[in-house]
Q: What sequence folds into this?
């Protein structure tokens, strides 16, 4: 037997596995560098943009957009370097909650740190409110409504993490605007592009794909229509939440550069599929709720054999993470769900369909704090006894941080990673 630690919420669980279990790790590891050196280097060498200190001018009204508690980006650390360079007192901070629920003051303080929390005006996006300005409509029909603080600011600074994203290709960048600081209407119109005209999941709305991805291209078109004066700082975090790379400058160009870095260092090529895959989101906040945790399930399923079982460690301390997600499971027939999605799409409806599609070919058991009734409503099973894992006789893969690491099936038949 081999013992491994699995991150689960803010704790770690120790589990025993058969010796033949394969722990998947990336082929390439980026060179270790000091975090301050990484950030300063990125800020000193912006991509397709003036330096940050030249981008802003004294007297500018500056809005800094940062991720909410569902996205870790080391905001408190990054902001210290940013604020040293812009030397401006007219600064407001806006949390890009997207369509997520509001945060407590303690949660906002934890993200920003005491000094920044105490010294700046802080806001968060309320997608269901009326605090939005209309900028226009994209060629795909998305009506662009952004938080009024965006239009009332001279310069926008976007700080976030660049990560894999299961339908937008990569997270971060302009996605911090849509859906980050957009209205619910804008968000659902954009996210509905995950569906084909027949109600299936659009194959172009997927991991690693930016060019040709309808979600991403709609976001980029929206950003260009708004014609904002914006500067982007995107960081890449490892499994220990250490900054291992950073990119700054033009919102689109610097994000794409970061996406290439993530693609190189955070994908794991795998020759064969496995009978069982054991995965963890990597702990809080990656498993803060089920909607965020689904990314882990999605990544893991790529290397699972048809009829296999996925065992997923996702705490979900904040529950489901969506007010409308569970409504979709009253449609037990995926075809009926697709018809309803086309007629009455709501946020995360495509996530429900994606989960249903996985359950047609695989079993999914979750170790979670979710109520058993909710787990079973979604068609999942509750992993109550982790000791069953050490009794598995089949081929086994383990992904300890499946929200940030993406296994790529490269073909073949042997359950052995490249």
A:
């Amino acid at each position: 037997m081999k013992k491994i630690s699995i991150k689960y919420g803010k704790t770690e669980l120790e589990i025993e596995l058969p010796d033949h279990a394969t722990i998947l790790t990336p082929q390439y590891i980026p060179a270790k560098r000091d975090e301050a050196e990484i950030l300063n280097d990125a800020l000193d060498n912006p991509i397709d943009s003036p330096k940050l200190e030249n981008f802003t001018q004294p007297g500018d009204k500056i809005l800094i957009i940062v991720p909410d508690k569902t996205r870790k980006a080391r905001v408190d650390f990054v902001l210290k370097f940013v604020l040293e360079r812009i030397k401006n007192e007219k600064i407001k901070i806006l949390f890009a909650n997207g369509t997520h629920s509001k945060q407590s003051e303690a949660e906002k303080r934890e993200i920003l740190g005491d000094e920044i929390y105490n010294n700046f005006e802080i806001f968060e996006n309320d997608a269901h409110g009326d605090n939005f300005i209309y900028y226009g409509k994209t060629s795909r029909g998305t009506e662009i409504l952004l938080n009024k603080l965006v239009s009332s600011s001279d310069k926008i600074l976007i700080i976030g993490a660049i990560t894999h994203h299961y339908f937008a290709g990569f997270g971060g960048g302009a996605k911090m605007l849509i859906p980050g600081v957009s209205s619910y209407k804008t968000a659902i119109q954009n996210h509905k592009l995950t569906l084909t005209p027949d109600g299936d999941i659009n194959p172009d709305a997927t991991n690693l794909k930016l060019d040709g991805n309808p979600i991403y291209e709609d976001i980029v078109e929206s950003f260009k229509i708004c014609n904002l004066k914006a500067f982007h700082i995107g960081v890449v975090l490892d499994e220990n939440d250490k900054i291992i790379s950073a990119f700054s400058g033009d919102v689109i160009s610097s994000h794409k550069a970061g996406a290439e870095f993530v693609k190189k260092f955070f994908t794991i090529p795998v020759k064969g599929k496995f009978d069982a895959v054991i995965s963890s989101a990597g702990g809080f906040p990656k498993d803060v709720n089920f909607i965020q945790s689904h990314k882990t399930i999605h990544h893991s399923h790529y290397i699972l054999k048809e009829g296999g079982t996925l065992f997923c460690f996702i705490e979900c301390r904040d529950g489901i993470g969506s007010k409308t997600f569970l409504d979709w499971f009253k449609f037990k027939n995926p075809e009926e769900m697709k018809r309803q999605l086309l007629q009455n799409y709501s946020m995360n409806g495509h996530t429900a369909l994606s989960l249903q599609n996985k359950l047609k070919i695989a079993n999914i058991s979750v170790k979670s704090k979710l109520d058993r009734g909710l787990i079973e409503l979604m068609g999942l099973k509750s992993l109550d006894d982790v000791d069953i894992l050490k009794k598995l006789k089949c081929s086994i893969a383990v992904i300890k941080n499946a929200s940030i690491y993406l296994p790529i099936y490269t073909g073949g038949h042997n359950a052995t990673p490249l």
